[in-house]
């Protein structure tokens, strides 16, 4: 693990969906640059593995973990309590947990639609409500919501994902304006990735009956830069938003899409 230059030294961060993929990358990147991190996930063992990886390289007490159902207000209260108890507070909240569901508007099951909104959108509503009181005690702070380029550009095959990620985009702006109006010194921004090489693509490849490398080549052809992103490409943006380097940025969105939205 690379040791950084302390861009978020002293920051106290809670990252949801921290068991693997983007969430794990966010946790590691923040820890590399000096933050103490609480990794949370419905997969508690995976979140604990993330914390163990960080502590093995950065020293005990750098990272902690908790099993966390982001759709539950009670679980959010427990997660915020865990941040208070283990980190000593909270000033960075990375709402990373999310899912996609299949089916066009005729085929999408309503239960899947609701589950997509529960995890992708309602989790951020609950999380910000529960976390803001503690974050205010440790301001300045930053909320980083992971949306998607699919929240800005639609597809006929994913209405639930499109609509939920668009909701994350606009919810982030509302939160940002509220925090600014109340002079909380807490910023809120959204990040919009396109295809990223995470374990989610393993399942996508299997479901499509494709070799993973074949899938990556197929996806890369849709991106002007002609390659699929790596987790650290997204984690570096999260690091910037978590740091005081972005202190004048709120209510904004960062597109990490290899140029797709420019077409």
Task: Note down, in words, how this protein is organized.
With 263 residues, the protein is an alpha/beta fold. The protein folds into 2 domains: 12-194 and 230-256, Rossmann fold, CATH 3.40.50.720; 198-228, no CATH class. 47% of the residues lie in helices and 14% in strands. The protein is built from 8 helices and 7 strands. The chain has a 7-stranded parallel beta sheet, with helices on both faces. Helix 2 links the parallel strand 2 (36-41) and strand 3 (63-67). The longest helix has 28 residues, at 110-137. It is globular.
Give me the CATH superfamily of the largest domain: NAD(P)-binding Rossmann-like Domain
Largest sheet: 7 strands, parallel
Secondary structure tally: strands: 7
Q: Topology as H/E string?
A: EHEHEHEHEHEHHHE
Strand content: 5-15%
How are the strands of the biggest sheet laid out side by side? 3-2-1-4-5-6-7
- As residue ranges, the low-confidence spans are none
User: What structural category arises from helix and sheet content?
Assistant: alpha/beta
Put simply, the count of helices is 8
Instruction: Kindly report the CATH topology of the largest domain.
Output: Rossmann fold
- Estimate the global geometry from the Cα principal axes: globular
* CATH A-level architecture of the largest domain: 3-Layer(aba) Sandwich
Task: Name the CATH class of the largest domain.
Answer: Alpha Beta
Give the end-to-end Cα distance, rounded to a whole number of Å: 36 Å
Mean pLDDT reading: 96
Range of helix content? 40-55%
Radius of gyration: 18 Å
């Amino acid at each position: 693990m690379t040791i950084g230059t302390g861009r978020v030294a002293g920051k106290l961060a809670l990252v949801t969906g921290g068991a693997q993929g983007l969430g794990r990358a966010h946790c590691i990147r923040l820890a590399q640059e000096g933050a103490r991190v609480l990794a949370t996930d419905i997969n508690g063992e995976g979140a604990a593995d993330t914390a163990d990886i960080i502590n093995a390289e950065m020293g005990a007490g750098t990272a902690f973990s908790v099993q966390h159902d982001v759709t539950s207000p009670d679980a959010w209260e427990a997660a915020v309590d865990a941040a208070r108890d283990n980190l000593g507070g909270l000033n960075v909240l990375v709402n990373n947990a999310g899912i996609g569901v299949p089916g066009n508007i005729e085929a999408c099951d309503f239960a899947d639609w609701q589950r997509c909104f529960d995890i992708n959108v309602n989790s951020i509503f609950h999380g910000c409500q529960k976390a803001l009181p503690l974050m205010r005690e440790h301001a300045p702070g930053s909320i980083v919501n992971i949306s998607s380029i699919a929240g800005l550009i639609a597809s006929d095959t994913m209405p639930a994902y499109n609509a939920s990620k668009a909701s994350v985009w606009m919810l982030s702006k509302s939160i940002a304006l509220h925090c600014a109006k109340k002079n909380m010194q807490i910023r809120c921004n959204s990040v919009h990735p396109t295809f990223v090489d995470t374990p989610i693509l393993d399942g996508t490849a299997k479901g499509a009956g494709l070799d993973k490398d074949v899938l990556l080549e197929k996806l890369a052809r849709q991106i002007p830069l002609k390659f699929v992103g790596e987790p650290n490409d997204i984690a570096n943006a999260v690091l910037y938003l978590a740091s005081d380097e972005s202190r004048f940025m709120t209510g904004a969105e960062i597109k990490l899409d290899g140029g797709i939205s420019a077409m």
